[in-house]
Specification:
Blueprint: H1 2-26, H2 31-60, H3 63-66, E1 72-75, H4 80-88, E2 97-101, E3 104-109, H5 111-115, H6 127-130, E4 132-133, E5 139-141, H7 146-156, E6 160-164, E7 170-175, H8 176-183, H9 193-202, H10 211-220
Parallel strand pairs: 1-2, 5-6
Antiparallel strand pairs: 2-3, 3-4, 6-7
Helix pairs in contact: 1-2, 2-10, 7-10, 8-9
């Protein structure tokens, strides 16, 4: 990858030098075309180098390095009323809650799961009754590459993906903002902190950044 890019840059540089020499010493203006082609070769080599660098980052960076702990673990035995009293009115509610029992994560619960349940059932039903079992949710392991994470999210249009430990516990979550933050140093032009924050808030990649397509080519290779 980088070797081919360097060769392109060298050849491009030689073409520029040769073209300008022909142009100015011999007065042959066709040399400008050679110089122009060389200049394009250098530009393309730089773009190719950035592309390869980003691909490599997507493969080498693992889910465990990117994830955030944007969730709370709660007792699966809580009644919906108990859960609502404790968490429904939080100023900054979590995107989801992990319902656990006897030290084992069973599934996910969201605020909407509670709201869409009849109020008359809040005293009767527990989180056990409404949780989404982990085995039925799209997840990735901590060791999964960022390319795999992106591909899983894009293929199913998920707002986020759950990261599991080797023993099947929820250890983190990754959304598009987390992805952009992790890749910011590899992107040109540089992604600002404001752009990262916007990606996090909107759960979207910056306009024009085709991370889905790049991740697919990275994993296919």
């Amino acid at each position: 990858g980088s070797g081919r890019s360097n060769i392109r840059k060298i050849l491009g540089g030689l073409a520029v030098a040769f073209g300008l020499t022909v142009c100015f010493l011999a007065g042959v203006y066709g040399g400008l075309w050679i110089a122009l082609i060389g200049w394009f070769a250098i530009r393309n080599a730089t773009a190719y180098s950035r592309f390869v660098s980003l691909q490599e980052a997507l493969i080498k960076t693992k889910a465990g390095e990117v994830m955030s702990r944007d969730f709370r673990v709660v007792d699966a035995g809580l009644s919906l009323r108990e859960f609502a009293d404790r968490y429904l009115l939080e100023v900054n509610p979590f995107p989801f809650y992990v319902a656990a029992s006897n030290g084992r994560d069973l599934g996910l619960v969201s605020i909407d799961d509670i709201r869409f349940t009849e109020r008359s059932q809040w005293e009767i039903q527990t989180l056990h009754n409404i949780l989404q079992p982990l085995e039925k949710i799209v997840t990735v392991s901590e060791k999964a590459s960022l390319a795999e994470v992106i591909n899983s999210m894009e293929a199913r249009q998920l707002p986020r993906i759950i990261v599991l430990s080797p023993i099947g516990s929820v250890v983190g979550t990754i959304d598009r903002g987390d992805v952009v933050k992790a890749l910011a140093k590899y992107l040109k032009p540089r992604i600002s902190d404001a752009d990262v924050k916007r990606s996090k808030e909107e759960n979207a990649y910056p306009q024009g950044l085709q991370l889905g397509a790049i991740a697919k080519t990275a994993q296919d290779n």
